[in-house]
Amino acid sequence: MSTHVVILGAGFGGLELATRLSDSASDEIRLTLIDRNDSFSFGFSKLDVLLGRKTISEVLLPYDEIEKDGVEFRRERVISIDPDTRRVATERASYDADVLVVALGADYDFAATPGFAEEGLEYYTLAGAERLRDVLTDFHSGKVLVGILGHPFKCPPAPFEGAFLLHDRFVERGIRDAVEIRVIGPQSAPVPVTKEVSRNFLDALAERGIEYVPNQHIVELDTNGKEARLEGGGTAPYDLFIGVPVHRVPEVVARSGLAPDGWVQVNPDNLATQFPDVYALGDVAALPGAKAGVFAENAARIVAENITARLRGSEPEHRYEHDGTCYIEFGAGRSPRSRRISSAARSRPRGSSDHLRSSQPTSWSSQRPDESAGSVRRGQRETAPERAVSLREVSPENDLLWRAPDRAASDRLSLLPSDCDAGR
Ligand SMILES: Cc1cc2nc3c(=O)[nH]c(=O)nc-3n(C[C@H](O)[C@H](O)[C@H](O)COP(=O)(O)OP(=O)(O)OC[C@H]3O[C@@H](n4cnc5c(N)ncnc54)[C@H](O)[C@@H]3O)c2cc1C
């Protein structure tokens, strides 16, 4: 009888895991992939919506086009998880898993910052990005405050990218001199895990006349006085407040007992939880360093390897390393730059890291995202693995937003039918 693997969440991590297991063990495994939504979208596509480059419907990749051996997608909301019995209930059914993988991502806690739900704007959801896009058209002058409201949060560069892109937009509209932009956050530096990347951000912020205020925790928005209240007693005025909301595990995970300390504790080598045959990966997991799609995907690869090794009575070759490459959009006039972001103080994986790298199916190239997706659809994958680990600028003519998950996302398109034109 085949092993029933139930994957909760069809985001970066869940999709990557389903793809890997389908490719490597579809004869031995029955896969159920559950998500409350009917489509996937990339995190960075929220910036596309914010800037009016794309509409929401243009950035959605429908799950009903998933075609992968052994994968059954169920569009259902998970309402309970029992990690002891590996039983999962949704609004419509219940599932008993031999192996359970929790990849439900991070939710936002808007209420954690009083005033934010009433007056704050954001681009961390598609709906929020669309709303902010519309509000910006009527904004002509004043103080824009970009506030990072908690830590950890998804995609450490995203608040700064947002500030750079807003700067560009105001320049284009000829109102930059009438607008002050300030970024406030609780971290000591823009991307504390790497000094080099932080230095890049600080330089880019300074070049654009954007003020950065580190080590400040916004506790509340005073919507009458139009100021953000800081933990230390100070205030920061704004006309437009754009926040990165406080993040937390989804409610169903909090109720499951999997995350008594806030995030799901896992073995950092293989993403196993303390419950037998229950794994957690991606944003939901308590791991050091950034929450980002590229890390969720890397983690999914390790979980896939562990599950297949368990089935075959062998040992996994690799252990998880929390590092990856991110592409950062600095805005008009400058190319996205790749930067390797690593919080792994650990040295070597078990076995050969070359194998891990060369096994990344689509790897990296300076193609535009839509071209790369097209080539995957045609089964002609570009392979230039060394780029995955290099710190280099991508080609200057490529001024599109093009970052690591973009490329990894082309893998994901292999879940979709060959004639899918749903997006990049
Ligand atoms: C503006 C922005 C820009 C970003 N840019 C980048 C970038 O350039 N590079 C990068 O690597 N990362 C980026 N990210 C971060 C990236 O999107 C996340 O880190 C990534 O999505 C995490 O993957 P995951 O699989 O853990 O969770 P997710 O991708 O969030 O997937 C979780 C899934 O679980 C589902 N779910 C949740 N609760 C339930 C429930 N109760 N029942 C059923 N389904 C449920 C959700 O619908 C979702 O599909 C960005 C994020 C934002 C907001």
Can you put this structure into words, describing what you see?
The model is unreliable at 339-424 (pLDDT under 50). The chain has 424 residues and is an alpha/beta fold. It has twelve helices and 23 strands. The chain is elongated. Bound molecules: flavin-adenine dinucleotide (FAD). The site of flavin-adenine dinucleotide has 38 residues, from helix 1, strand 2, helix 2, helix 9 and helix 12. Residues 9-14, 34-37, 43-44, 46-47, 77-78, 103-105, 123-124, 154-155, 158, 250, 252, 282-284, 291-294, 296, 326, 403-405 line the site of flavin-adenine dinucleotide.
The CATH top-level class label of the largest domain: Alpha Beta
- Fold-level CATH name of the largest domain: FAD/NAD(P)-binding domain
Parts with pLDDT < 50 across at least 5 consecutive residues: 339-424
For the secondary structure, the number of strands is 23
How far apart lie the N and C ends?
37 Å
User: Radius of gyration, Cα only, in angstroms?
Assistant: 21 Å
| CATH superfamily membership of the largest domain | FAD/NAD(P)-binding domain
- What would you say the CATH architecture of the largest domain is? 3-Layer(bba) Sandwich
Which molecules are bound besides the chains? flavin-adenine dinucleotide
How many helix segments?
A: 12
Strand content: 15-25%
| Alpha-beta content class | alpha/beta
Mean pLDDT: 80
- Give the number of domains: 2
Name the overall outline: elongated
Can you summarize the main beta sheet? 5 strands, parallel
Share of helical residues: 25-40%
